[in-house]
Design a protein that fits this description.
The protein is an all-alpha fold. It has one domain. It contains 4 helices and no strands. Helix 1 runs antiparallel to helix 4. The chain is elongated and about 50 Å long.
């Protein structure tokens, strides 16, 4: 996996989570700026998914548990889309709250993807 891309994704996810937390604490609903942040995060995750599948297909070396790795790779891409829909439906401050949880989950899953690729057992 690309550690530089993973780092960028983690930083973007944590920044989106922090911004959404501030919005939730201010008792505001989700806005277009949240969708833009989730869109950027989604684009980065799609790029990571493409890199992950290319490395799985091309390298002889891959993760020990390929099924779990692929599950994380696909699952992490779904989270921002679902959180955007849920956040739009929830027109209270809990809409941005959903985004906070989703972005934190994305950051943790990206770290776990790196661990799976390197063969770390946690």
């Amino acid at each position: 996996m690309s550690s530089a891309l993973s780092t960028v994704i983690i930083i973007a996810a944590l920044l989106a989570a922090a911004y959404s937390l501030v919005t939730a604490l201010r008792d505001r609903a989700m806005g277009w700026d949240h969708l833009a942040a989730l869109g950027v995060l989604e684009a980065l995750l799609v790029a990571q998914m493409a890199v992950g599948f290319v490395k799985l297909a091309g390298d002889g070396k891959g993760p020990d548990d390929t099924a779990t790795f692929v599950g994380y790779l696909i699952g992490v891409v779904i989270i921002p889309v679902v959180s955007a829909g849920w956040g739009l439906l929830e027109r209270t401050r809990w809409g941005p709250g959903v985004i906070v949880v989703a972005c934190l989950a994305v950051a943790v899953m990206v770290v776990r993807l790196g661990q799976l690729w390197e063969g770390a057992v946690v």
